[in-house]
Design a protein that fits this description.
By secondary structure, the protein is of the alpha/beta class. Helices cover 37% and strands 12% of the residues.
């Protein structure tokens, strides 16, 4: 397995995309569809499944998920790849001694536990998965095994079919955070890919003469390819056919400046405001705490702000966002935003593109990327948004006493929103990020190491632009709508 990836499931996903891109580039995709599974799974021995035939069938379904518009959902379960993980969370192991105390029975609130042949047995029809039996057992004989996809989902959107034992997604409760995509050990949950549409968009530009194709890169890109500086990555992206590469961090400067003004006005009549740059966090509020919808900042995300800036100067521009986020693929389809960005590409897909085109960033010359300030480039790490807004408040001498509540992951977001619900939130600004650590640990990123924050900070320190206000004053923002 290549060390570019966190795990083998991600590597297989990448290999499928790479082969599809390579075949499309050679205009042989229709012919190669049937040979790609054999190329990826050459045999004769199976790698992880019962046989190479099932492994190849799974590859075929992965290909279909990319090539065909199967549905409008951003996140999907590849049914055949789901390995029927345990349905039931709690089960009694061989460590059970059939003891006299019966702590498990005494602590079960639903009477789901009984003794059979001097051993505890859980009636799963009565079990409510409270976990009291597991905590009470002195022998630790009751195991707690929850499906990784279900444990990663903070909205209860991951359920299962009782007949097939396969995981399914309740889309009414899905916020497209993508946590299940990265947590499924079998790679059975995947995000929608538009790699073929992106190739078509670039090809039809006729080397950017019919229209120009821009790439907006998320600030987290600096932590994606270890040992390669961002300037070389920019050149590599341009070699794919993009006219120019622009930092989404430029939009972060614009948003931080605008957000500071919103806070000065809104906090006069609202107890708190939440950030709006993480689409999964915004969706979480709307789903779980709809009464707080009016507390969400009205500012667009940095991605959208950057796109609108580009289209203000080049109305015919076509724009691709490249980042670590699954929820961005959903954000760009929203009715009021769908004309700003054509497609969103993941860092996984970017790596597949570079390798399919035989582009090695290490061998590329440097291209300058100096659109943003230090404060914009720290947006992708937890606490970065707050720091940027504080700086903008100071730069503009605004009358705002900011009391931030920084939420690192959806668990902390839930805690803050619950406190706000009962009027006990100790703050007036909630910075919410669905991914723990921030965007640098997005579900479709490549580099999810603890050192990612260090890389982000180092890239931020290298920013040539210092003053946010002066930076954005270089651009004509008068006709750009920064409201969602």
């Amino acid at each position: 397995m290549s060390k570019k990836f966190d795990n083998h499931a991600q590597y297989i996903k990448y290999k499928v995309m790479k082969e599809i891109i390579r075949s499309k580039k050679k205009n042989s995709l229709n012919k190669d569809i049937f040979s790609i599974p054999n190329k990826i799974i050459p045999g004769p021995n199976a790698q992880t499944r019962c046989c190479i035939y099932k492994e190849r069938a799974i590859i075929s379904d992965r290909i279909k998920n990319v090539i065909y518009e199967l549905n409008d959902n951003v996140v999907n379960v590849i049914d055949i790849a789901c390995d029927e993980c345990p349905l039931y969370r709690f089960s009694v192991t061989e460590a059970c001694r059939g003891c006299l105390a019966h702590h498990c029975i005494e602590n079960c609130p639903t009477g789901a536990i009984e003794l059979i042949n001097q051993r505890a047995h859980i009636n799963q029809e009565k079990c409510i998965e409270c976990g009291k039996c597991s905590k009470a057992c002195l022998f630790e004989a009751i195991s707690d095994v929850k499906r990784p996809c279900r444990s990663s989902c903070k909205t209860g959107a991951l359920v299962y079919d009782a007949n097939t034992k396969k995981s399914i997604i309740d889309y009414d409760n899905c916020i497209n955070c993508g946590a299940c995509v990265s947590r499924c050990p079998f790679g059975a949950i995947t995000d929608k890919s538009h790699i073929l549409e992106i190739m078509e968009l670039i090809n039809k530009s006729k080397l950017n003469t019919n229209y120009k194709v821009y790439a907006i890169v998320a600030p987290a890109i600096s932590a994606q390819i270890p040992g390669v500086n961002i300037e070389k990555i920019v050149t590599a992206i341009k070699k794919l056919g993009f006219y120019d590469v622009v930092e989404a961090a430029l939009g972060a400067d614009i948003v931080a400046n605008y957000e500071a003004k919103i806070l000065e006005e809104e906090l006069n009549h609202k107890k708190f405001i939440t950030s709006s740059c993480c689409p999964a966090f915004v969706s979480y509020i709307k789903l779980k705490y709809p009464s707080f919808t009016d507390n969400i900042s009205t500012s667009v995300s940095p991605m959208i702000a950057t796109a609108r800036l580009i289209k203000n100067t080049d109305p015919s521009a076509k724009i691709i966002f490249i980042g670590p986020c699954v929820a961005k693929k959903s954000e760009i389809t929203q009715e009021n935003l769908k004309n700003d960005i054509q497609y969103a590409m993941s860092f996984e897909e970017l790596q597949a593109f570079l390798d399919a085109y035989d582009i090695n960033p290490l061998e590329c010359e440097d291209s300058p990327l100096d659109d943003a300030t230090y404060y914009a480039r720290i947006f992708p790490r937890s606490g970065g948004v707050t720091e940027a807004i504080k700086n903008s408040i100071n730069e503009q001498n605004l009358n705002v006493e900011l009391k931030p509540v920084i939420c690192n992951g959806l668990d902390e977001c839930e805690k803050a929103l619950r406190l706000a619900q009962i009027g006990k939130l100790d703050g007036n600004f909630i910075e919410g990020m669905a991914c723990k650590g921030g965007c640098i640990n997005g579900p479709v990123s490549l580099f999810k190491k603890s050192t990612g924050t260090i890389v982000i900070n180092n890239n931020a320190v290298s920013a040539e632009k210092i003053d946010v206000k002066n930076n954005i004053n270089e651009y004509d923002l008068e006709n750009i709508n920064l409201d969602i």
